[in-house]
Amino acid sequence: MRALSFIFCLFLGSAGIAQDMDLKSLKLALAQRAVVIAENGPSVEYELDGIQIYLIADESANRMRLISGITEESKVKAEDLKKMMEANFDRALDAKYALSNGFLWSVYAHPLKELEKEQLIDALYQVKNLVNNYGTTYNSTDFIFGVDN
């Protein structure tokens, strides 16, 4: 019985350990799903299904971000802005709509070391989906938080 308890404790203890994602692993995982267009140190431009997605990472700050430009801020209508803010609450999930430097972006940000590969791949597709769904459903996935599917 003690041996079984010991094994169970080992399993529980190892289940919460992060995989310690680093920049090299991050780039490799993304390159398995998207085409690398250009690379400049911790910044990489990818193409996924016709959408440009940029990785910006900083290992010393333990942060990473996937971003994709959607349109110029001046082209965003007030009713679209309202829909995007509502989508950020329940339909955009982990990726979000954001305005910066005169552009509308699809953005996913996360601590780098704590990021799991499955989360990263999901984030890549969520960023792409927000670009594709701008002006229609504004969804990042088929799941809508807080609604029975």
Keywords:
149 residues; alpha+beta; single chain
Summary of the model, kept short:
The chain has 149 residues and is α+β, with helices and mostly antiparallel strands. It is 36% helix and 30% strand.
Task: Write up this protein.
The chain is α+β, with helices and mostly antiparallel strands. The chain has helices at residues 2-15, 23-31, 78-90, 117-133; strands spanning 35-40, 43-48, 51-58, 63-72, 96-100, 103-111. Strands 1-2-3-4-6-5 form a 6-stranded antiparallel β-sheet. The longest helix has 17 residues, at 117-133. It is globular and about 40 Å long. The N and C termini lie far apart (42 Å).
Question: How do the helices and strands line up, and which of them pair or pack?
Answer:
Layout: H1 2-15, H2 23-31, E1 35-40, E2 43-48, E3 51-58, E4 63-72, H3 78-90, E5 96-100, E6 103-111, H4 117-133
Residue fraction in strands:
25-35%
What level of helicity do the residues show?
A: 25-40%
Number of helices: 4
Strand order of the largest sheet: 1-2-3-4-6-5
Radius of gyration from the alpha-carbon trace, in angstroms: 18 Å
Please tell me what the overall shape is: globular
Q: Sheet bearing the most strands, described? A: 6 strands, antiparallel
Q: What pattern of helices and strands is seen along the backbone? A: HHEEEEHEEH
Number of strands: 6
